[in-house]
Amino acid sequence: MDKDFTSRRRRELIIAAFFAALAATVPLFVKDVYIQNIMVLTLMYAALSQAWNILSGYCGQISLGHALYFGLGAYTTALLFTKFGVLPWFGMLAGGVISAVIAMALGYPCFRLGGHYFSIATIVIAEIALVLFQNWDWAGAALGIDIPIHRDSWLTFQFTRSKLPYFYFALVLACIAWLVTWWLEDSKWGYWWRAVKDNPSAAESLGVDVFNSKMGAAAVSAFLTAIGGSFYAQFVSYIDPESVMGFQFSLLMALPAVLGGIGTLWGPVLGAVILIPLTELTRSYIGGSGRGVDLIVYGLMIVLISLARPQGLVGLFSVSKKAVSR
Amino acid sequence: MTALLETRGITQRFSGLVANSNVSISVGRGEIVGLIGPNGAGKSTLFNLIAGVYTPSEGSIWFDGEDVTRLRPAARCQRGIGRTFQVVKSFESMSVIDNVIVGALVQNTVMREARRKAHEVLEFTGLGARAAVPASDLVPAEKRRLEVARALATEPKLLLLDEVLTGLTPTEAQTGVELVRRVRDTGITVLMVEHVMEIVMPLVDRAIVLDLGKVLVEGKPTEVVRDPKVITAYLGDRHAVGS
C-alpha cells in the first residue's frame, strides 16, 4: 500500500519533469512572437491558477479577489524599481511577503465567514483596493506606472528583443507553483486543508486547527500569486490599476483550476493549457468586431466543457485508474 | 485511581431551554460506559460538551486530571478525547485512507508514520480492503466504521461514540459491538451514547440514564433496566412496575 503511494507520487514527479522539459524545447520550433506571447501567458496563468487552487481548491475557501494579490505583486515591484531603484528580483520577494501578510490580515476577520459570504467579501475587498490604487497619486493613480526600459538584462529583468527569457521564467514559475502544490499535497497542511474543505467540524474534532489552516493556505496562495503579478509587471512593462487589479484577473486565475479540476494537482495546468490559448485566439480571430462574438464563442466552449466534465478535465485521465480500483 | 473523565455540576442552557442541569458523571479508566435516555434527554448536549463543541453555562469538565472546560474540540482531541458523529461526517472528497490520515496526524508528525498508523487502524476496524476507495463510495455501515477509525487514529484515551450502533442491521450491529470490545481491550476507555437499550446493555460495564437533562439512574446495566424510574422515563407511567 505504502509502496503504491510512494511510486504514484514519484510517477507524478516524472510526468511533470517530462512535460516541463517538453515545454522548454517548444521555443526551438516556434519562432512566431505572437504564439510565444500566448505561451508565456499560458504558463503564467498555470502558475497563478495553481496558487489560487491552494486556497480555493484544496482548502475550499473560494476567493474571487485574487486580483488584489496579483496587483500588489505588480505594484510593489514596479514602485520599488521606479521610485527607489530596487531590482525586480527583490521587488518580487517583497511583493510576495506583503501579499502574504495582507492575505492573513484580511483572513483574520474573513475566515469567520462561511461559504459564499467569504467569496463575496473577497470580491468587495479587491474592488476597494482597485479604487484606492486608482486614486493613489504617488502610485500613479489611474494612469499607472511606466517601467522605464534600460537595456536587456537579467539583472533588471527586462527584455525587449526576445520573449524567450520571459518564457523560461514563466516556465520556472509554473514549475515552482506545481512543485509547491505537489509537496504540500502530501504534508500535514495538505490533509488539513482538504479536511477543512470537506467538513470543518469533523476536522476540528480530529485535532485540525481550522482557522490557522485557512491562514496558512491564504499566505502561500497570496505569496505565489504576487510573484506572478511581479512577473507580469516586468513582462508588459506598463501597469495601471485596471490592468493588474481588475476583476477579470480574479476570474482568469480561478477558471483554469475550475475547468481543469478544482483541488487537483493537474487541474490548473490542464485548464490553463486549454483556456488561455482559447481566450487569446478567439480574441484575435473573431474578436475586434465590437460585437463580442469572441466572448460568446468563448463562453459557449466553457459551458460545453463544464457540461461534459463537471468534475473537471482531469477526470478524463483518471477514468481508467478508477475502473481498476473498483 | 482518579476518574479519566469527570463532569462537575454541568448546566447547559440554550436561550431559556435547560438541556443539561447539574450533571455530574465520571468515567473510570478502561470502562465502557453507556449514556442512555429517551429522546430529548440531553444526551447529545452532554456528549458535545465533553467533546468541546459547547462550553457549559455552569460547571466544569475534567479530563485526565486537567480542567478542559474552556478548550476547543481540537485541543481536547490532542489531549486524548476522540469522537464520532451521529450523522456521519466523512471527508467525502478524500479516500478512506486519507480520511484516517487526518486523524493520525495528531500524534504522528512524519507523513510516512501517519500513513502507517492509518493502515493499521483500517485493518483493526475491518476497512483495510477499502483503503483506496473514495469515502463517498462507502455504504452507511462502513461510514460508521470510518468514523470510529478516524477517531481511533488520533490515539485517544477516551473514545466518545455517538449512536454508532443505531440503525444498523443486527449483523452489522454485532460486528460493531465486537469492535467496541476490541477497542476497550487495547486500553481505550469508551463512553457511548445510544438510544436503543437492547444493543448497548450487554456491552457496557455501567449505564448512566439521563432524563429531562438530569442524571436519572446510574449503575450496572442489569439493575438499570429494571429500575422503575427508567421504565417510566422510556415508556411512561402506565408501564412502570407496580403501578
Topology:
The complex is a heterodimer of chains A (326) and B (243).
Chain A: H1 2-29, H2 33-58, H3 67-84, H4 88-110, H5 115-134, E1 145-146, H6 164-185, H7 188-198, H8 200-205, H9 210-236, E2 238-239, H10 241-245, H11 247-260, H12 267-286, H13 293-308, H14 315-325
Antiparallel strand pairs in A: 1-2
Helix pairs in contact in A: 1-6, 2-6, 2-9, 2-11, 2-12, 3-4, 3-9, 4-9, 6-9, 7-9, 11-12, 12-13
Chain B: E1 5-14, E2 17-27, E3 32-36, H1 43-51, E4 58-63, E5 66-67, H2 73-79, E6 81-83, H3 96-104, H4 111-124, H5 140-153, E7 158-162, H6 170-185, E8 189-193, H7 197-200, E9 206-211, E10 214-219, H8 221-226, H9 228-235
Parallel strand pairs in B: 3-8, 3-9, 6-7, 7-8
Antiparallel strand pairs in B: 1-2, 1-4, 4-5, 9-10
Helix pairs in contact in B: 3-4, 3-5, 4-5
Structure notes:
- The complex is a heterodimer of chains A (326) and B (243).
- Chain A is mostly helical and 326 residues long.
- Chain A has helices spanning 2-29, 33-58, 67-84, 88-110, 115-134, 164-185, 188-198, 200-205, 210-236, 241-245, 247-260, 267-286, 293-308, 315-325, and strands spanning 145-146, 238-239.
- A two-stranded antiparallel sheet of chain A has the order 1-2.
- Chain B is an alpha/beta fold and 243 residues long.
- Chain B is built from nine helices and ten strands.
- In chain B, the strands form two sheets. Chain B has a six-stranded mixed β-sheet with strand order 6-7-8-3-9-10, with helices on both faces. In chain B, strands 2-1-4-5 form a four-stranded antiparallel β-sheet, with helices on one face.
- In chain B, 46% of the residues are buried.
- At the A-B interface, helix 7 and helix 8 of A face helix 2, helix 3 and helix 4 of B.
Q: Number of helical runs of chain B?
A: 9
Judged by helices, strands and strand pairing, the structural class of chain A is mainly alpha
Strand order of the largest sheet of chain B: 6-7-8-3-9-10
The low-confidence runs of chain B, each spanning 5 or more residues with pLDDT under 50, are none
Write the CATH homologous superfamily of the largest domain in chain B: P-loop containing nucleotide triphosphate hydrolases
Give the N-to-C terminal Cα separation of chain B: 41 Å
- What's the overall geometry of chain B? globular
Shape of chain A: globular
Can you tell me the residue ranges of chain A where pLDDT is under 50 for at least 5 consecutive residues? 319-326
